[in-house]
UniProtKB/TrEMBL annotation:
It comes from Dyella lipolytica. Pfam families: HTH_5. Residues 1-89 form the HTH arsR-type domain. PROSITE patterns: HTH_ARSR_2. The lineage of its organism: Bacteria, Pseudomonadati, Pseudomonadota, Gammaproteobacteria, Lysobacterales. InterPro entries: ArsR-like_HTH, HTH_ArsR_DNA-bd_dom, HTH_MetalResp_TranReg, WH-like_DNA-bd_sf, WH_DNA-bd_sf. This is Winged helix-turn-helix transcriptional regulator. Keywords: DNA-binding, Transcription, Transcription regulation.
Amino acid sequence: MAVDRIFDALASRPRREILAYLSAQELTAGDLASRFDMSAPAVSRHLSVLESAGLVSSERRGQYVYYQLNSHNLVNTLTGFAFEICPNGRPLKRESRKMRAAKKQGT
């Protein structure tokens, strides 16, 4: 059942943090792995769980796969709201926004 997959995906703190980062911009698995104390394959497994739950989608562009939130998903809408008021989520969103701004200035 899809709802069970969503709750299983949200049960993991790293996956919730990945959602917080993706709430501000799309990122590659490598971009996300640089923010965590875990290997890139471990981050990829978390992304796979989030994707199978319908919370994120991916798009291959050249040699990179970019991940983004599925904004039409009600859970992501509610999660985005929670990250705005959550003391743990706010810093992650701020960091992701700063990275997006720096990326735009660099291009």
